[in-house]
Amino acid sequence: MTEIANRAKALIFMTARDCEMYVRQSLASLSRQTHDDLHVLFVDDCSEDDTGIIAAALLNDLFLNRHTFIRNDARWGKSRNVWEHLRPRTNMAEFIVILDGDDQVIIPTIIEQMSRCYADGQDVVWTNFITDGGGIGGNGALDPNLSPRRQGWKTSHLFSFRASLLDNVPEGYLRDSAGQWYMAACDIALALPILDQTRRYEFIPVNAHRYTATNPYSHHNLDPQSRGLNSTAQQRSAQEVFNKPPLPLTRPAKNATAARVLAPASVESRPLATAVGAGQAWQETASEILIAGYPTLLDAQSVAGRDPLTPMQIWALRRATFQRSETPNILHIGAPRSALVLASLISGLEAGLNCLCISPEQVADIEARFIASGQTDRISIIETEPTNVSFENVSAIFPDTRPIGEDVKFDLVVVDLKNTAYPAESALLALPALANNLSPRGFNLCVFAEDRAIEELAAKRWASVSTGLKFCLDAIGGSGLMVVGGR
C-alpha cells in the first residue's frame, strides 16, 4: 500500500479489477479536473492483468502526494472495499466521489461544481451519464418529500456524498441476507443508506460520466440473461437492497434546498388547500416535480393530441412503470398520449416500450408523434390486425397479440382507449386477451376506457373469474382501472 495522508475537499474512490484497457483513460480524465483539491483512493481488487501496475505509475505521475494506492491479495468486491478501505478514511475529505477504474469523467469542471453544492449545504450530489455506445442514462432528481427507496434507481453515476454520512452506515447494509458482502449492485448498496439519512441533495442535469458498458468483465456482459445493464445477480441484489429498512432521516430538506432541486420556490410556500382546491394544488406540485425529473415530458405533452394526461395521471403511471423493475418491459395499446408519456418516463434507460397498432394509419400517426417529440430510442411499433375477441357474453375487436409471441412477458401494460376508434366494449377484453403476456413475477395493467361504467364493469367481471389479482378503480390519478398481479 502506498499512502500519502493529507486532507482534501474531495476524496475520489476508485476500484478496479482487470481493466488494463481502460484505467489509463480513467485516471487521465480525472487529472483534467479543474478542481485540484482532491485525493485519489485507488484499490486494485486483485487484478490478474496489469491494471495495478499501470495505475500505480499513473498515480505517481498525475497525482503526486495526492493519492493512496492499495492492492488486495484476494478479490473483495466494491462493498467490502468500501467498508475496509473507504470508511476508515472518511476524515480525509469533505465529500467522496465514486469513479470506477474503467469509466471516465467527461466534464472537466464537474467536481468543482459539486464542491460548490457542498459549500451551499448539500449532502449528496450526482449527475447523469452516457455509455461508451452513446446511450444516455436515466438519472434524475429525487423528490425530498418521499423516501429514496420508493423512487427507483436514479443516482448512479457520477455519485458523490458528504463523507461523514458513511460513518453512520452499518456493516450489514453492505452484506446480503446470508451475511456475504454484496458482489453485485454494490453502487445501490452504498447509495441508499447514504440517501436515507438526508434530503439535502442535488441532481446536476448534465452527462458528466462515461460508463464503459462494453467492458467484457462487467456483470451484464458475463450474464446472457442480463436485462440491459443489469445482470440477474444485480437485479436480485438490488431488490434485496431496496427492501432493507431505511436508516433514520437526520437531515431533512431545507425549504430552499427542496425548491432548488425540484421546482420553483412557490411549491414550498403554497398551501395545499388553496382557493383553487387541494386537487389543483396536487396537480401543480406533481407537474413541477415531474418536469424536473423528466424534461422530455413537455415535448411529449405538446404532441399528445386530445385530452392529454394530467400530472397526477402521469405520476400514477410513473409509479406503475417502475414498481416491478427498474428496466421494465412495457406494452401499450391505444391513444398515443399515454405512449408518449411512457417513452418520457423510460428515456435513457434500458427499458423497452412496445406499441401495438391495428392499422397502417395508427402506425404512421404514433410514429410521427414520437419523432415530433424527439423520442425514438428503445421504442418498438408493432403493426397487427384487429381480431374479434370474446369474453363471457361480450365480443368486440382487439389487437391480435400473436405477433408478440407468448414467450414475451410485460411488467406493465397500458390500454388507453380514450378518444380512439375502438368500441367501448373493447376495454372489457384487455385482461383476457393479454393474460398470456403478463409477467408471472407480477405486473400492472392500466386501463383507460371510454367511460367509468365500462371500467367498473371490467373490474367486476374480471374479479369473478380470476384469483390473486387486485382491482383499483380511479387509481390512475383519479381515473382508470388498475389491475395488480403479484405483491
UniProtKB/TrEMBL annotation:
Molecular function GO labels: glycosyltransferase activity
Lineage top rank: taxon: Bacteria
Domain Glycosyltransferase 2-like, first and last residues per copy: 12-140
Transmembrane segment boundaries: none
Enzyme Commission identifier(s): 2.4.-.-
Gene3D superfamilies (UniProt xref): Spore Coat Polysaccharide Biosynthesis Protein SpsA, Chain A (3.90.550.10)
Record's compositionally biased regions (Polar residues): 224-240
Stretch list, region Disordered: 224-249
One Pfam family, short name: Glycos_transf_2
Keywords: Glycosyltransferase, Transferase
InterPro entries on file: Glyco_trans_2-like, Glycosyltransf_2, Nucleotide-diphossugar_trans
Enzyme class: transferase
Name of protein: Glycosyltransferase family A protein
Lineage summary: Bacteria, Pseudomonadati, Pseudomonadota, Alphaproteobacteria, Hyphomicrobiales
